[in-house]
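= Paired protein data =
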Amino acid sequence: MHFVKAKSILSPKNGINIYRGCSHGCIYCDSRSACYQMSHEFEDIEVKENAPELLKAALRSKRRRCMIGTGAMCDPYLHEERELELTRRCLEIIAEHGFGVSLLTKSDLILRDIDLIEQINRSAKAVVQMTLTTADDDLCGKVEPNVCPTSRRLEVLREMNSRGIPTVVWFCPLLPFINDTEENVRAIVEMSAEVNVYGILSFGMGMTLRSGDREYYYSQLDRLFPGLKQRYIKEFGDSYEIPSPNGGRLWELFTEQCGSLGIEYRPEAVFGYLNDFPEPEQFTLI
């Protein structure tokens, strides 16, 4: 872990990333890709120590309130957050200024901040998003080794919903020959329905690989699933898009399950919900 003084924190699309790099150890992580030009080792977390101050200044200068998103590139609840509490301080600032927030994580550490998330949801809007890739906790421990298992993430979603905080699941990636099964698709959708999620985001039945990410992923396949790397090389070569060979049927099953259980699965609709900031109610005098 190392600290930097960042020059800015809020992106043009109102996203923030307090950390850079990750300690969760997910074998497929796209953020390892060389295109992001990370100048340090991925596990040597870069901490933007002045993130709260930058966020406060950015929100003060905005003319309209909106949703602030975090977690797209780096989980806001890394192990380091337990001690540093930078995400919590940013949530305090979001609450203070009346903005909304959408958080994407794999960590149950988010429960530490449920008081603030609930406060933001009462005054504006808060949405908690959890990545779920496999219903099998043992497999989860292999492909996402340093973070809580799927069963615990479902408990987090259930607790959020019990507080009236809306939730969304990211069902991605599907790793060919690992978790791309009909049983897994059914289980993830059914589990999501049981904890009353608003929607499930999936971007097709497969994954992506590019330079930097691919090499790490293949090294982990050699370690965890001997022989599977050679199958990937034969099937996909150096392709960026790595679709499940059974992707068509899995997508059909996914959409059917979501439709029958009343879960929104259209990406444009889910993203629209995540980005929509509630306008204050208008009162008229009679």
Observations:
- The two ends are 60 Å apart (CA to CA).
- The longest strand covers residues 100-105.
- Residues 140 and 250 are 20 Å apart (CA to CA).
